[in-house]
Amino acid sequence: MSSIFKSFLVNWDDIPRENVSESIGRQVIHGDELTIVKLYMKSGACVQTHSHPNEQFTWILTGHIRFQYGEDLEHVVDLKSGDVLHLPANIPHNATCIEDTIDFDIFTPTREDWKLPTGNCYFSSTKNGSK
């Protein structure tokens, strides 16, 4: 095998959990071209309306979460265990947990903003405006 091949093996139990708000915790792995995140959100937790230059896939492991997305947040979808939502880059969106929820979010390219102290400003415990 070539020495230019770079890989690593990690177990989620070994990744520290960071609390980004009172009701949202996460574990993050950054690769060269993508970021994968395991989010732990309590019922009522909110991710405020935002957009980013990253394509996003959200896979619900357990729980129930409501996403609003689109230029005017005109689309509303409830996701439950097993559901996967694809959000193209630069699409405004927000989310509110209906139940305690654990999900995986996959972003490409890497979420460089999450490496900065200001990169978590849209995680909160306050209610999103809903349609």
UniProtKB/TrEMBL annotation:
<dbReference type="InterPro" id="IPR014710">
    <property type="entry name" value="RmlC-like_jellyroll"/>
</dbReference>
<dbReference type="InterPro" id="IPR011051">
    <property type="entry name" value="RmlC_Cupin_sf"/>
</dbReference>
<feature type="domain" description="Cupin type-2">
    <location>
        <begin position="42"/>
        <end position="101"/>
    </location>
</feature>
<dbReference type="InterPro" id="IPR052535">
    <property type="entry name" value="Bacilysin_H2HPP_isomerase"/>
</dbReference>
<dbReference type="Pfam" id="PF07883">
    <property type="entry name" value="Cupin_2"/>
</dbReference>
<dbReference type="InterPro" id="IPR013096">
    <property type="entry name" value="Cupin_2"/>
</dbReference>
<protein>
    <recommendedName>
        <fullName>Cupin type-2 domain-containing protein</fullName>
    </recommendedName>
</protein>
